[in-house]
């Protein structure tokens, strides 16, 4: 984990201001909750921290490194959406394998890493199941498993 700091973070979409001059520090290993009414900028802030949105202005620091304008792939950070980002036409195993395939891992390495992630997340018994038929907790674990390309970093 790392310290996350945002300074004067601002995001606008045309005339709409989604985040206005936000400042916060989340200490290393701190449990942090971002709470607020619908439309107040929580998701936009998280998307900027993860690198899925670029700020209009302001800065984002991960362990004192300015990552404000780095791509998501250049940051060692991820989050799981409230609505699980799963591919309903794929089974659990293929959902876990998808990010590894996109990064060019070998079939053997993908198989090994998927099995290790599935065991860690206790979903190895549902690898052949379609994600559309899973319970919410199982869907969340599949979504978590799909985030990490290096399952050694899972826990």
Report on the architecture of this protein.
The structure is a single chain. This protein is α+β, with helices and mostly antiparallel strands and 155 residues long. The protein folds into two domains: 4-74, Rossmann fold; 92-153. 30% of the residues lie in helices and 19% in strands. It has helices spanning 42-50, 92-102, 107-120, 136-147, and strands at residues 4-13, 16-26, 57-62, 65-66. Strands 2-1-3-4 form a four-stranded antiparallel beta sheet, with helices on one face. A hairpin with a 2-residue loop joins strand 3 and strand 4 (65-66).
CATH fold description of the largest domain: Rossmann fold
Percent of residues in helices:
25-40%
Secondary-structure element order, N to C: EEHEEHHH
Largest sheet: 4 strands, antiparallel
Mean pLDDT: 86
**Which class best fits the helix and strand makeup?**
alpha+beta
How many structural domains in the coordinates? 2
The radius of gyration over CA amounts to 17 Å
Shape: elongated
**What is the tally of beta strands?**
4
Tell me what the CATH architecture of the largest domain is.
3-Layer(aba) Sandwich
Please name the fourth-level CATH homologous superfamily of the largest domain. Answer: P-loop containing nucleotide triphosphate hydrolases
| Share of residues in strands | 15-25%
The residue ranges in which pLDDT falls below 50 over 5 or more consecutive positions are 149-155
Query: Strand order within the widest sheet?
Result: 2-1-3-4
Characterize this entry briefly:
This protein has 4 helices and 4 strands. With 155 residues, it is α+β, with helices and mostly antiparallel strands.
